[in-house]
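Thread: Newbie trying to understand structure tokens

Hi all, I'm a second-year student working on a class project, and my supervisor (Dr. K.) asked me to get a predicted structure for one chain before our next meeting. I've only ever worked with sequences, so writing a 3D structure as a token string is new to me. If someone could post the tokens and maybe explain what I'm looking at, I'd be very grateful. Here's the chain:
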Amino acid sequence: MRGFKFVVLAAVAGGYLAVAAPPVVAQVSVSIGLAPQCPYGYYDAAPYGCSPSGYYGPEWFQGGVFVGAGPWFHGPENFRGQVNNGFHPDHGYTGPMPNRGERAEPSKRVDSAHFNGNEERDGRGHATGGAR
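---
Reply by user tm_fold:
Sure, no problem. This is what the structure looks like when written as tokens:
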């Protein structure tokens, strides 16, 4: 009988604690900041380093301005564009990289006739399965 009273007392005390506990409010805040200023666009995955000329196809630029990639994408929802993933460090590229804030050099810009894309991506950095 003594054990039963102890269990009932513990249950009543637990009930009071549950009622008296203040409600918990969770808040998540994500700040992505400003897009990197890169002459030929930036990679679509963190840490969003500047990509070299030839990584993005001409459809990624409007009036010579990069439309963005990843969290800073400013194109239409159904956007699909070609990239040459041979210019990505994860695929073995070790060539020259532009620095943030550099200006594009017209002589280094790849035109649509000479672009060699090998993978189709959406603006969020996901491969869409299309290939050239």
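A couple of things are worth pointing out once you decode it. The two ends are 80 Å apart (CA to CA). The mean pLDDT is 82. Feel free to ask follow-ups in this thread.
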